[in-house]
């Protein structure tokens, strides 16, 4: 965020290619906080924390051209 500024970062977060990843990342962040502080459920907090890390990784990979497509193809090949 410090390289391009907060406004440009927020605009890029809402791009068509990153909208789903951004939504998942922010949703998992909120659910992690709810599970930890409001519901006081360690298992759910841990699950949401893991999902948050995975969604942030997927979001970060969107900044590298063609990497997400390559990962999806690799997973599809492993599933066959």
From TrEMBL:
Keywords: Membrane, Protein transport, Transmembrane, Transmembrane helix, Transport. The chain crosses the membrane at residues 20-39, 45-64. This is Vesicle transport protein. The keyword Protein transport applies. It is a multi-pass membrane protein. It is found in: Membrane. May be involved in fusion of retrograde transport vesicles derived from an endocytic compartment with the Golgi complex. InterPro entries: Vesicle_transpt_Got1/SFT2, Vesicle_transpt_SFT2. Belongs to the SFT2 family. It holds the Pfam family Got1. Signal peptide: none annotated.
